[in-house]
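Support request from a user on the community tier.

User writes: "When I paste my structure tokens into the form, the page sometimes reloads and wipes my input. The last time it worked, I copied everything first. Here is what I submitted, just in case something in the input itself triggers the reload:"
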């Protein structure tokens, strides 16, 4: 994002370093990646989730590209354990979770965490982490064989361990993160089919959102018919909540603009609906997500009339709103996006940044006090770190490529 005040840039850089420092404790030398509590300590008894391992490998690959000492060994550890410990040598793919000893705890094979293996491999590959390129190729091949449904132009949700029984449910969250992963892989490889798949995922998601007045449906049956009442009895589910998830509106808005950029880099015309959809999703997030109950912050979900369903504030929603505002400002130059960008950073600094114990509070209640209704602890630094980096970097399909491109720019002349 252009024309950031120098001290704001410095603040973002300092916050990036603070987050990278906090997240180091998740790396278990004897195993994979653990779940951090509010103080940044490993949480006893909490599984070692595949999606956390993928996210942290991505994060510390970014840190390595940024030249932050100590990040490269963590990225290398991530590539190593993703290539071995989490990998199912018998049936292929990756285990969803491990126990404290590194043994498989959840053997289902789900698209959502597999997307983060692709993301980890792409970022590690760009950061030239040993084994990163091989991990990326392996993950792309597994997703291509097991999860990508070429008929529907989307990924399926979940298999059993042996890839014999497929869940009837289809989810947009898994496809959103697969879109992110495919864009990162496109940045790493330049392969045209990854961009084509990104466009197909984006088009189906935008069609579904448009049909609901841009309140993005999250849950579908096997024929991609929306299940609007899904989890009505479990409204605060951390991964599959009832209703429409406000943070995903912003996340999709940013990703759609990255698809647009990928089209430009591939020398093809970007469909007009990409930007039109990004603008509509962002505007709805402002109208129905921000201060929807009269108090600062974003509600977690809304119902199909746009009324708040779960009012707790999740840190990742604010992070994605900032990323979307920064990206829209970069591609449009419109001042209104700068207004929201500044407004939401003020909110984050006032309520989410934990200056005492590190990182950000991952959840707040309706009065903006720390809460754990939906998620406990501070599992990773993925969303928060990206919020600090996106405003500083050129718009690229993958964040690791953006960091690498920014690093290749000539340094400014020193003033004498």
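"...and here is what came back when it finally went through:"
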């Amino acid at each position: 994002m252009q024309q950031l005040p120098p001290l704001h840039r410095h603040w973002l850089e300092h916050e990036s370093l603070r987050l990278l420092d906090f997240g180091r404790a998740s790396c278990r030398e004897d195993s994979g990646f653990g779940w951090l509590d509010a103080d940044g300590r490993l949480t006893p008894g909490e599984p070692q989730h595949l999606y956390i391992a993928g996210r942290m490998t991505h994060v510390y690959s970014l840190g390595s590209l940024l030249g932050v000492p100590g990040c490269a060994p963590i990225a290398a550890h991530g590539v190593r354990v993703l290539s071995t410990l989490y990998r199912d040598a018998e049936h292929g793919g990756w285990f969803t979770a491990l126990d404290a000893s590194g043994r498989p705890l959840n053997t289902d094979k789900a698209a959502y965490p597999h997307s983060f293996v692709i993301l980890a491999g792409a970022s590690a590959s760009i950061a030239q982490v040993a084994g990163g390129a091989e991990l990326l190729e392996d993950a792309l091949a597994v997703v291509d064989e097991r999860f990508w449904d070429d008929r529907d132009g989307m990924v399926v949700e979940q298999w059993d361990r042996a890839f014999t029984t497929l869940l009837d449910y289809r989810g947009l969250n898994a496809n959103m993160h697969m879109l992110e992963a495919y864009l990162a892989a496109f940045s790493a490889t330049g392969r045209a089919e990854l961009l084509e798949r990104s466009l197909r995922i984006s088009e189906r998601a935008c069609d579904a959102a448009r049909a609901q007045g841009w309140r993005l449906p999250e849950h579908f049956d096997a024929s991609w018919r929306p299940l609007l009442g899904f989890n009505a009895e479990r409204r605060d589910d951390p991964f599959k909540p009832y209703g429409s998830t406000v943070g995903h509106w912003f996340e999709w808005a940013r990703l759609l603009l990255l698809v647009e950029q990928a089209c430009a880099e591939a020398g093809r015309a970007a469909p007009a609906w990409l930007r039109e959809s990004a603008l509509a999703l962002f505007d709805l997030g402002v109208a129905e997500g921000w201060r929807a109950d009269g108090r600062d912050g974003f509600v977690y979900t809304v119902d199909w009339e746009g009324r708040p369903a779960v009012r707790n504030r999740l840190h990742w929603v604010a992070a994605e709103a900032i990323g979307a505002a920064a990206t829209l400002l970069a591609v449009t130059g419109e001042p209104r996006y700068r207004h929201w960008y500044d407004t939401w950073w003020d909110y984050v600094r006032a309520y989410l940044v934990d200056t005492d114990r590190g990182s950000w509070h991952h959840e707040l209640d309706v009065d903006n006090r720390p809460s754990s209704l939906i998620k406990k602890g501070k599992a990773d630094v993925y969303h928060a770190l990206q919020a600090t980096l996106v405003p500083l970097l050129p718009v690229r399909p993958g964040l690791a490529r953006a960091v690498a491109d920014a690093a290749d720019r000539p340094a400014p002349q020193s003033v004498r």
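Agent notes: The reload is a front-end session timeout and is unrelated to the input. The longest strand covers residues 104-106. Confidence is low (pLDDT under 50) at residues 411-416. Escalated to web team.
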